[in-house]
Amino acid sequence: MNEVCVRVALRVRPLLPREVLHHHQVCVRVVPDSAQVMLGSDRLFSFDHAFGPTASQDEVHESCVRPLVESLLDGYNATVFCYGQTGSGKTYTIGGGNLNEEGGIIDRVAQDVFLLLEEKRKNSDGGEAKVGVSYMELYKEELRDLLELHTIHKELHIREDERGNTVVVGAKEMVVTSAEELLNGQCPAPHRHHRNERALQPLPHILTFQLIQCCHSNNSSLKSVRSSKLCLVDLAGSERAGKTGNTGTRLKESVHINTGLLALGNVIRALSDPGRNRSVHIPYRDAKITRLLRDSLGGTAHTLVVACVSPSHHSVAETLSVLQFASKARHIRNRPGTTPT
Ligand code: ADP
Q1: Is the CB of 84 under 6 A from ligand 1?
Q2: Distance 237 CA to ligand 1 centre (A)
Q3: CATH number corresponding to 4-334
Q4: Which atom of ligand 1 is nearest to the CA of 88?
């Protein structure tokens, strides 16, 4: 099985109007015509892609997300996760519920999946296909089903199948037949302003497209079935809980999000160690988010990390820590494989 590295895209958002008004200085810039960013005047970081404040949603999608939709149709699992401090542009980048040019990754992936399936059908190399969507959030280390919020206290469980793929047991799957059906609110669609009513701040959430494709081979009546999934994950704020200024319930929520992100940092550190041999223990079990992302980090999926940063000098410490996290993630090697047909 071929090894491929986790790919990392770094996105610097524009200064917001109020930041301009308060004379915030820009402390991080994309080096023109490169995939590098410079923090301050002398710290250079390299990525697979780097997007500056003028990069469009379409540019981000076309250059680094669309290839993962193509992998999905080819039978591979794939994951995109957005990482960055609160206010750095994760929600904007991941999108949801917006089919115009401002639409983010969720919107464009939803459109691409059906477009590419249609193309495949026209070229008669595609058979029947079913697209199922599940949508979850992590609330204080509890995985909740956002498609069944009316069901009181339905906690979901995570396990690994025999091929090393992460499976969420009991998650509701909604069959969708078009991007519009998913995003125009006919079903409990992912929406960019989605907020858990019980939570005081954005929580990590995960939208999964599960694709089942049935094909008849040309010269036989044998049918082959191929199953693959594409997970889109918004990880919520990467800042340290103590630095958020939160108190009470909000602080407790931050601590849980933090436990998850700390565990994620440890998994990435362990996996990206150049001297690591395959038998070294990777602490996936320390948090729900790392158990959930197990097949995306050092596992069987094609993975893209979109790391978002604010350009403001007020965020320089958080930006540095995101750049360091994202640089490490580039060293993680996965071994993608299609499902046997
Ligand atoms: P996060 O989800 O990381 O907390 P948001 O996505 O809510 O951050 O972004 C914070 C603010 O910055 C929002 O007002 C958002 O519209 C704006 N913003 C983020 N990224 C961009 C971008 N690339 N272009 C224009 N505005 C952006």
Answers
A1: yes
A2: 13
A3: 3.40.850.10
A4: 3
Q: Does ipTM surpass 0.85 in this model?
A: yes
Decide: 52 in ligand 1 pocket, CB within 6 A.
no
**Residues in the chain with pLDDT values less than 70:** 1, 125-126, 149-154, 185-202, 216-222, 238-257, 274, 276-278, 339-341
Question: Tens digits of per-residue pLDDT, 199-231?
Answer: 555 678 899 999 999 876 666 666 788 899 999
Name the residue with the closest Cα to ligand 1, atom 17: 89
pLDDT digits (tens, 9 = 90+) for 11-20: 999 999 999 9
Segment holding 50, helix H or strand E: strand 49-51
Ligand 1 pocket, residue 13 CB under 6 Å: yes
